[in-house]
Design a protein that fits this description.
The protein is mainly alpha-helical. Helix 1 runs antiparallel to helix 2. The two termini are 26 Å apart.
Length: 91
């Protein structure tokens, strides 16, 4: 087990609030990382995506770095700008 995984497991064991919020926080972080990776693979800058979405670069940065409060419709538009499709799974 990696040092990070060990740390997370120990922290979950001693901090119920951390344990309760860890999965949600991780998923939100992962969404932002996936969006950034897709943008980079498409060869676009944050500024270019912002122009296509008629918004500011700071809004794109916020989406990529703090994806916890992003509307589903915004994620769909972001994906379309990159030539991608958005899939949602509930499980």
């Amino acid at each position: 087990m990696s040092d990070l995984k060990q740390y997370v497991e120990k922290r979950k064991a001693r901090d119920p609030e951390f344990a309760e919020n860890y999965e949600t926080g991780y998923l939100e972080f992962k969404i932002g990382v996936l969006l950034r990776q897709a943008r980079e693979e498409a060869g676009l800058t944050q500024e270019e995506v912002a122009q296509k979405l008629n918004t500011k670069k700071s809004a794109i940065s916020r989406i990529e770095n703090h994806a916890e409060d992003v509307r589903l419709s915004t994620l769909g538009k972001y994906a379309r700008v990159l030539g991608k499709k958005l899939y949602l799974s509930v499980g």
